[in-house]
Amino acid sequence: MVKQFKQTIAIALGSFIALTAQTAMAHDPIFGIGPHVLFKDGVEVALELESEKAGRDDEQGIGIEMTYGITGDWAAGVTLPYEFKDDGTDNSDGIGDLALFTKYRFWREDSLGLQESAAVFLKVITDTASNSKTPSIGKGTTDTIVGLTYGYEGRKWYRWASARYRFNGKNNAGIERGDKILIDFVGGIRPNLTGYLETDIVYLLELNGEFGKRARLNGSELANTGGTEWFISPGIFWTQRNFAIKAGVQIPVYSNLNGNQDESDYRAKMSFEWHY
């Protein structure tokens, strides 16, 4: 499974880098969300790699995301992941749940060397994976995420804050998966003030919180579901004109999960983005 995952990543990376070797863009957090949207008729293609571990559960994923700038303040896109899962006794892989998303920036204020903005966010995660030959891939429901985000982007300093609510659906087993609240606070610094044609690096530090409600079955709450987790997440945002690499790791610092659940060991994410 690990060998297959590495081979898939190598092929995908090789293809993606060949397409994006040309080398700009506004910044957004790695694990949270920010108010950045594309310019009108702009296109962003991203290759995303993710990995997470909690107890015996080990998951990796690779996904392609495409975003289109409908206007200068409104963007929409689609994400298609491929997932690898190992629970310690069995492993599986397959195409994950297709997701559709949109973001609308409703406020923006520019001043010398500074931009502040705010946006609303909507994402629908479909139930497409459960119809595949690998039913263990996917969650078995259609979920919806709505959110609000604020961003402060200066020449040297950055900060973001966001709140999202995830409405989780009922799966085929009749389990009403508990909804989640996601909270993010992010700071960033650009140590060296660079020009547009120069390589640019911003270092990020995120505080990510998750508050999950208990799942329910036939009106009764399930004991080993829901709870709270907080993560400290260092990361880096590297850009060269219209090409960017983002990478970060979520390190758990607080956990209060209900009943008998495995706490998160880590979560990691890396993405390669190209605007044109």
What is the residue-averaged pLDDT? 89
What is the rounded distance between the termini? 35 Å
Number of helices: 1
- What fold name stands as the CATH topology? Porin
Low-confidence stretches: 8-24
Strand numbers in spatial order across the main sheet: 1-2-3-5-6-7-8-10-11-14-15-16
Structural class from helices and strands?
Answer: mainly beta
CATH top-level class: Mainly Beta
List the helices and strands and how they pair.
Layout: H1 2-19, E1 43-54, E2 57-69, E3 74-86, E4 91-95, E5 99-111, E6 114-125, E7 143-154, E8 157-167, E9 175-176, E10 180-189, E11 200-212, E12 216-217, E13 220-221, E14 227-240, E15 243-257, E16 264-275
Antiparallel strand pairs: 1-2, 1-16, 2-3, 3-4, 3-5, 5-6, 6-7, 7-8, 8-10, 9-12, 10-11, 11-14, 12-13, 14-15, 15-16
Structure overview:
This protein is mainly β and 276 residues long. It has one domain (2-275): monomeric porin ompg (Porin). Helices cover 7% and strands 58% of the residues. The chain is built from 1 helix and 16 strands. The chain has a 12-stranded antiparallel beta barrel. It has a 3-stranded antiparallel beta sheet with strand order 9-12-13, with no helix packed on it. β7 and β8 (157-167) form a beta hairpin. The longest helix is centred in the first third of the chain and has 18 residues, at 2-19. The protein is globular.
